[in-house]
Design brief:
The complex is a heterotetramer of chains A (597), B (587), C (133) and D (159). Chain A contains 24 helices and 19 strands. Chain A is an alpha/beta fold and 597 residues long. Chain A folds into five domains: 106 residues, Glutaredoxin (3-Layer(aba) Sandwich); 210 residues, Rossmann fold, CATH 3.40.50.11540; 84 residues, Ubiquitin-like (UB roll), CATH 3.10.20.600; 90 residues, NADH-ubiquinone oxidoreductase 51kDa subunit, iron-sulphur binding domain (de novo design (two linked rop proteins), Up-down Bundle); 57 residues, Alpha-Beta Plaits, CATH 3.30.70. A five-stranded mixed beta sheet of chain A has the order 12-11-15-13-14. Chain A is globular and about 95 Å long. Chain A starts with 5 loop residues before the first strand and ends with a strand. With 587 residues, chain B is of the alpha/beta class. In chain B, a hairpin with a 2-residue loop joins strand 20 and strand 21. Chain B is globular and about 75 Å long. Chain C has a single domain, classed as Glutaredoxin (3-Layer(aba) Sandwich), CATH 3.40.30. A five-stranded mixed beta sheet of chain C has the order 2-1-3-4-5. Chain D has 159 residues and is α+β, with helices and mostly antiparallel strands. Chain D folds into two domains: 60 residues; 77 residues, Glutaredoxin (3-Layer(aba) Sandwich). Chain D is 43% helix and 11% strand. Chain D is built from seven helices and four strands; from the N terminus they run H-H-H-H-E-H-H-E-E-E-H. In chain D, helix 1 packs antiparallel against helix 2, helix 1 packs across helix 3 and helix 2 runs antiparallel to helix 3. The interface between A and D is large, with 51 and 36 residues.
């Protein structure tokens, strides 16, 4: 067998594939062949590297060269220069936005320096469609050890000791969840992997399934052994075709090796998985709704208790964990509960994957230890705010979360601190906002989402969120009054207090947290009728700069409501009360004399 | 049963394990308001989606408020049902519901009957906080012959969906759409007439608002009454007299037969007759049919279809036409009492009066909404003139009485007119589940055995269990009888017959809980199933007080056969009193 | 594909497979490994750098030496090609000139594994290739 | 809602899909997925046929179809356009892109152009947040789209 001296890892995640990474693979391979280097260099399609901002990514090991934004036509050069002659192609190397220096070794990139990759340990490292690469990295060893040498309770105890908490949002201790399900008595139980990731702006579950499907399958089997289930179901969004494909391939390979199916590794334990597809309903991320959906019904949540661990899918005890939670499991068993619990904070152990997005330089997927500060995440890993603008807020936890501000930048991130700050971990979306973002509009955006995704079962969520949205709309269109803010607060609190499921109980968080942290901005909207960020169309203030105005009267003729007056060749004036903020004058003025605030 | 102790509003209460906070509170006289929750204990029907969130209470140590209807008590739980947090939440949620509900209560047909209206009155709602011109969810209105849907008024309590699917297994309705626009509707939001709806109306009976209401022909009845060229006669179904009093504040289970007759007369009906008369007629025809089939079966005839199924209930007829088209030949061909009455009135009584068929208006007062549909079926018309012109419900009769300034309470009891007003105890019990078959057995026994029945009460056929089975001894011949009320139970029985699991000679089926006494045209029970139990008892009380208790002993029935029909299953009977069924899918 | 019948089978399989991933594993924590860089510019290749590299890779794999081999550009010692730079963790990098296959193995066995000093070290001002322009 | 009258071959397709899932109502969502792949959308007749095979009420099927945004009862355009409205795309200007598309195509979200060429929908996060704002036409992904590019992109679909 050929001993490759170099591996060219090409990101095959959805983001990079969208920028032609498949053609890049082809080009690299053919150029390697052209130069007769087939025995020296191997091209591997991997999962996501996380650095989606600069995709497509080609990483070359062992020298950790990190090529960004590679185009198909760059491939020949990479092979001729780097593979053949050992000269890195400088122009494709990642350039540090601060120092403007090309960084040759990805280990030195700020983006990766503070990361600890557990759930993402194999993403961007192995070929997700090749089970051998997973096994080479101790894949299925944890499962093997457990089912041949441990009792379910012993394994559950390790999980409990590790302190792993559910990564889907709630943060419920995984070991305890397993224990409850293991103690429920039934002829059949189910392990469900919740891969119905729906937070807009969060895509970690998809990346894990695309980059390391076996770790999820292995963890589900481990869970099955612990709780006494032989059937596993992955509930996955139909909008994730690549993840579905990779998961199917992985399951097929595992079955062929006998790592799924009857009598795994001669242990007597049997387990297999099947896939169920979501169909575009955010609420199905809630576990009781997910179970309804798996049963072929409308994905409406049900009252808890009974919890799924007692009465779940088809009325049987069901353990539901999300993808990221499962991805941590094999690592915990391989390296030990103590190792895992040594990472993180007192009550939040291990790492968390975040999807960094918004007005930030390094958009992408990162995995950081719990307890890291927002400042480190945004300014070190994330490379700071785009275009040198000022940081304003970061939204965590998606539509269920809240906005954190400057004053939270040095708060260690963990489950409890985020809740204390009025937000939540959620599934790990992190959207960074700058000075141009209006926080009322941001709250409105999230409510729009919740209104659309509310299942409609309970009144507070179905109608309450609609009303919240209407009030925010009213404020953004300049018709709000101060009392609206009080009503927003009361209504939000009642919705949180009375809604049936997690979606409704958290949906007002964006409203409450923006009111708390940006009260002045709300006041500016309702009292002065100004949008300080300048983003609400109806609240733009148009004025004429007298020193620039030539009195050409072009604007007067453009104004549909006769709000502009003035003598010819004299500076004109806009009547603020008449102005409908249509912007027609602004378009017409040739002397940039119209000022918009 | 394990007991646990909890504290509600500073009062300790001991409850059985598994009890909800709502029930625990009820035990100590605290009535937590509910809206979507519905529990018909006597009938085993529960709707508990936990959706309206009106019943929330504070549980110490819990992050959010708990829906008391679906939160089980746990030992040591401390509950507050009316502190500021709870009151504010309830009021705010109710305001939200009202903000998406038309404010036309003054002209709503459910006004005064509406749970939502009552609740906002109770909670002292005086204004509704919402944005000016807040969006309302609106839907196309749907009018069917029996009921109307105005889903703008729907609050998504899901009671109708539960009844239609889980209880009746009709499957006409489902929650559709998502979020703000979600609503309960037939497939493709089409009209009910294009759905498998049987018009049983049980959805109307449980609707807490004016979203589902009966189709009301009262105005046409008033017009007919004031038309001097018309002779207007009325027939009243047995279940009506056992419930009508409730609308006038009388105790459930009060029989108001005499007052009802007086009221109808004072409304201006030319003759006040009794559907019970037709019920006796039904027994003659159906009972004879039953005996004929059993006789032929015992003689070894191979093509005899057994069991025979009763066919008095129009919703049930719709149900088997929709779901059991392969079994259309087993129900009795006898028409329902309402239609038998109509046929006799228009073809026999009209001649007696010497009025033209077109000038005789037959009105029925029914506990039922499906009857409104039944009288419109084509086969029950002659040249476009219906045998029964209008069918109004018990509730509609009550409001007609009220609107005509009649003081029901002070009326002197009166008797039905003759000849179509005489009836037996056997006819009265048509109003309760098991009654039709008991009535049939009383007559069939005597005709079959030629002996006089010693014991008239067949207690083994009575009760409120959804499915009941009994064997009656016909002088050595065991006759197996099955009884079901509510269509879901009917389906179980029918499926059992189809698969050969059951062997019955006769089966009685009623679509509504408890039979006609629980019909959708009856005064609303608002979730109190003990009302249905009280009506049930009243029906059998009336039976026991009747002088004649077997249909074939009704003197006017005997006379009708002598003068007009000849004998049961005669050609004239076939023409006027029997019908045939259609496969709905072939329409 | 054959079924894996026991945990031992799985472990054996892992051992057989892991060498294929070695290059990637090693890149994960280069600081803890001996880093060997082969100058692979035209002059290097012309002098047989590729053969040297193959020898190094095979020997490291065979003896499971905790070292990683990477390619580099021209180090500027064209007179002494093929050249390799060896950086043992905690020590300054050292450049060897005129390396052939035999010498490559010597370097690995004596310098890298046993820590002996070898002849033929090109004195440098301790610049790594990275810092070279 | 367009009326598709099922031919025998259509009925056979539906029957095969249902049989593949053993006519199990628990697999309704999978069946609807397959049917939508086969027909491009889920017209009334298809839903009725599925209900018939699974022995469940049509109302239930319709209730499920209308619950999940992935299912559609209107046929898509030849080139279905989806605008990602995930948060990352939103803060990077997806709304402007959407407005421009609405203007250019003169249709609303969920609509199809008169000639059936394009249909316009929104979706939630395709996970290409690095390329925000993102636009999909068919399977093709357009990243970092600006409103000014829309006309050019649309014009490139000649057929």
């Amino acid at each position: 067998m050929a001993q490759f001296k170099m591996h060219l890892l090409v990101c095959g995640g959805t983001g990079c594939r969208a920028s032609q990474s498949e053609i890049i693979v082809e080009n690299l391979k053919s150029e390697i062949k052209n130069l007769g280097l087939e025995n020296d260099a191997q091209v591997v399609i991997t999962g996501c590297f996380g650095f989606c901002e600069k995709g497509p990514i080609v990483k070359i090991v062992p020298d950790n060269t990190f090529y960004t934004q590679v185009k198909p036509e760059d491939c020949a050069e990479i092979v001729r220069e780097h593979i053949l002659k050992g000269r890195k192609v400088k122009r494709l190397l990642y350039e540090d936005p601060e120092t403007q220096k090309h960084i040759e070794d990805s280990k030195h990139m700020n983006f990766y320096q503070k990361q600890i990759r557990i759930a993402l340990r194999n993403c961007g490292f192995i070929d997700p469609e090749n089970i051998d690469e997973y096994i080479a990295r101790d894949g299925y060893a944890a499962l093997g050890n457990i089912i041949t040498g441990m009792s379910p309770q012993e394994a559950i105890d390790i999980m409990k000791k590790s302190g792993l908490r559910g990564r889907g949002g709630g943060g419920f201790p995984t070991g305890i969840k397993w224990e409850i399900a293991s103690k429920s008595k039934a002829d059949q139980k189910y392990v469900v992997c919740n891969a119905d990731e729906g937070d807009p702006g969060a895509f970690m579950d998809r990346s894990i399934l695309e980059g390391d499907p076996h770790s999820v399958i292995e963890a589900m089997a481990i869970c099955g052994y612990c709780i006494g289930a032989t059937k596993g179901i992955v509930y996955i969004r139909a909008e994730y075709p690549l993840a579905i494909k990779r998961l199917k391939i992985a399951a097929r390979q595992s079955r062929a090796y006998g790592l799924l199916g009857q009598d795994i590794l001669g242990s007597g334990f049997s387990f297999d998985i099947e896939l169920r597809y979501g169909a575009g309903a955010f609420v199905c991320g809630e576990e009781t709704a997910l179970i309804k959906s798996m049963e072929g019904l409308r994905g409406e949540p049900t009252v808890k208790p009974p919890f799924p661990a007692e009465k779940g899918y088809l009325g049987k005890p069901t353990n539901v964990n999300n993808v990221e939670t499962f991805a941590n499991v094999p690592a915990i068993f391989l390296k030990g509960a103590d190792w895992f619990s040594s990472i993180g904070t007192a009550k939040s152990k291990g790492t968390k994957v975040f999807a960094l997005a918004g007005k930030i330089n390094n958009v992408g997927l990162i995995e950081v230890p719990m307890g890291i500060t927002l400042r480190e995440v945004i300014f070190e890993i994330g490379g700071g705010i785009k275009d040198g603008k000022k940081f304003k807020a970061v939204q965590t936890g998606g539509p269920s979360g809240g906005c954190l501000t400057e004053k939270h930048l040095d708060t260690p991130i963990d489950f409890d601190n985020l809740i204390a700050a009025g937000s939540m971990m959620g599934s790990g979306g992190m959207i960074v906002m700058d000075e141009d973002d209006c926080m009322v509009s941001v709250a409105k955006f999230y409510l729009e989402f919740t209104v659309e995704e509310s299942c409609g079962k309970c009144a507070p969520c179905r109608i309450g969120n609609k009303r919240l949205h209407e009030i925010l709309e009213k404020i953004c269109s300049g018709k709000g009054v101060e009392a609206d803010i009080d009503y927003l607060k009361n209504l939000s609190r009642v919705i949180k207090d009375t809604a049936l499921c997690g979606l409704g109980q958290t949906s007002p968080n964006p409203v409450l947290s923006t009111i708390e942290h940006f009260h002045d901005e709300y006041l500016a909207h309702v009292k002065e009728r100004i949008c300080p960020a300048g983003s609400c169309k109806a609240l733009k203030l148009y004025t004429i700069l007298p020193d620039k105005c030539t009195g050409c009267t072009a604007c007067v003729r453009a104004c549909p409501v006769d709000a502009i007056t003035g003598e010819k060749r004299q500076a004109h004036v806009i009547d603020v009360n008449k102005c409908i903020r249509c912007g027609a004058c602004y378009e017409k003025c040739k002397f940039t004399a119209i000022h918009v605030q | 049963m394990e007991k646990i102790k909890i504290t509600i509003d500073n009062t300790e209460v001991e409850v059985s394990k598994g009890a909800t906070i709502y029930h625990a509170a009820k035990q100590i006289g605290i009535d937590i308001p509910v809206l979507c929750y519905l529990n018909l204990e006597h009938l085993n029907i529960e709707n508990r989606p936990g959706g309206c969130r009106i019943c929330v209470v504070e549980v110490e140590g819990r992050r959010n408020l708990a829906p008391s209807c679906s939160t089980e008590c746990t030992p040591g739980m401390v509950v507050h049902t009316h502190n500021l947090r709870v009151m504010n939440a309830r009021k705010t949620v109710l305001e939200l519901i009202l903000s998406d509900h038309p404010k036309e209560c003054l002209v709503c047909s459910s006004s005064g009957q509406c749970d939502l209206q009552k609740l906002s009155q109770m909670m002292g709602i005086r204004e509704i906080h919402a944005v000016e011109n807040a969006e309302m969810s609106t839907y196309r209105k749907d009018f069917s012959p029996a009921l109307r849907r105005d889903m703008d008024k729907c609050i998504m309590c899901r009671r109708c969906e539960t009844i239609c699917n889980d209880v009746q297994t009709v499957g006409a309705l489902s929650a559709v759409n998502r979020g703000f626009m979600s609503v309960v509707a037939p497939a493709f939001e089409q009209d009910l007439v294009d759905s498998p709806c049987t018009f049983c109306g049980q959805c109307v009976a449980v609707c807490p608002t004016g979203a589902l209401t009966p189709f009301d022909d009262t105005a046409k009845v008033i017009r007919a009454l004031s038309d001097p060229s018309k002779t207007v006669i009325v027939q009243t179904a047995p279940a009506v007299r056992a419930a009508l009093g409730e609308e006038f504040g009388l105790e459930p289970g009060t029989l108001v037969t005499g007052k009802m007759v007086a009221a109808l007369r004072s409304l201006g009906f030319d003759k006040v007759f009794d559907t019970d008369f037709a019920a006796d007629l039904t027994i003659m025809e159906e009972g004879t049919e039953l005996l004929d089939r059993i006789g032929r079966y015992l003689n070894g005839e191979k093509d005899v279809k057994l069991p025979i199924l009763t066919s008095c209930c129009p919703a049930w007829v719709n149900f088997f036409e929709e779901y059991y088209p392969d079994m259309l030949d087993i129900p009795s061909t006898a028409r329902s009492p309402q239609q038998m009455f109509g046929a006799i009135a228009k073809n026999y009584y009209a001649d007696l009066l010497k009025v033209k068929r077109e000038d005789l208006v037959v009105v029925s007062v029914m506990p039922c909404l499906a009857k409104k549909y039944e009288c419109q079926r084509e086969e029950f018309s002659t040249n476009g003139n219906r045998d029964v012109d209008f069918s109004i419900s018990t509730r509609e009769l009550a409001s007609l009485i009220k609107s005509c300034n009649i003081n029901f309470d002070s009326l002197t009891e009166e008797e039905f007119d003759q000849p179509l007003g005489e009836s037996t105890g056997a006819a009265v019990i048509f109003g309760a589940t098991g009654g039709v078959i008991e009535a049939a057995v009383r007559t069939a026994y005597e005709l079959f055995t030629g002996k006089k029945l010693e014991k008239i009460d067949f207690k083994e056929l009575r009760g409120l269990d959804g499915i009941r089975m009994a064997t009656v001894d016909f002088n050595g011949t065991p006759i197996h009888i099955g009884i079901a009320h509510q269509l879901g139970n009917a389906r179980k029985l029918l499926d059992g017959i189809r698969s050969g699991m059951y062997n019955f000679h006769a089966i009685e089926i009623m679509a509504c809980p408890g039979g006609c006494i629980g019909g959708a045209g009856q005064p609303l029970h608002h979730g109190h199933s003990d009302i249905i139990k009280a009506r049930f008892d009243a029906i059998y009380r009336e039976d026991s007080q009747k002088k004649i208790r077997k249909s074939h002993e009704n003197p006017f029935i005997i006379k009708l056969y002598e003068e007009f029909l000849g004998h049961p299953l005669s050609e004239k009977s076939h023409h006027l009193l029997h019908t045939h069924y259609f496969d709905k899918h072939k329409k | 594909m054959n079924k894996i019948k026991s945990l031992d089978d799985l472990r054996k399989m892992k051992q057989n497979l892991e060498h294929e991933m070695n290059i990637r594993e090693k890149s994960n924590e280069p600081e803890s490994l001996v880093q060997i860089r082969v100058a692979m510019a035209t002059c290097g290749i012309a002098s047989g750098a590729r053969t040297v590299m193959n020898t190094l890779v095979e020997k490291i794999e065979k003896d499971k030496i905790p070292a990683v081999v990477t390619q580099g550009g021209c180090m500027g010692y064209c007179y002494a090609e093929p050249t390799i730079e060896v950086k043992v963790p905690g020590k300054d990098p050292v450049v060897f000139g005129n390396v052939d296959s035999q010498r490559a193995i010597d370097i690995l066995v004596k310098y890298v594994v046993n820590g002996e000093l070898l002849e033929g070290i090109i004195p440098t001002n301790y610049q790594t290739i990275n810092e070279k322009k | 809602m367009s009326a598709l009258i099922l031919q025998d071959c259509h009925k056979k397709t539906i029957e095969e899909i249902c049989i593949y899932y053993k006519n199990d109502p628990g697999d309704l969502i999978k069946i609807l997925h397959k049917a939508q792949t086969a027909f491009g959308y889920l017209p009334e007749s298809v839903q009725r046929e599925i209900a018939f095979h699974l022995k469940i009420s049509v109302a239930k099927v319709y209730g499920v179809v209308t619950f999940y945004s992935f299912f559609t009862m209107t046929p898509k355009g030849k080139h279905p356009i989806s605008v990602c409205m995930g948060t990352a795309c939103y803060v990077r200007g997806a709304e402007k892109v959407l407005d421009e598309l609405k203007d250019q195509l003169r249709i609303k979200v969920g609509g199809v152009t008169e000639n059936g060429k394009f249909s316009l929908d929104c979706l939630r996060c395709v996970g290409a947040c690095g390329l925000a704002p993102v636009l999909l036409i068919g399977e093709k992904v357009y990243g970092r789209v600006e409103a000014s590019q829309i006309k050019g992109i649309l014009d490139s679909y000649q057929d």
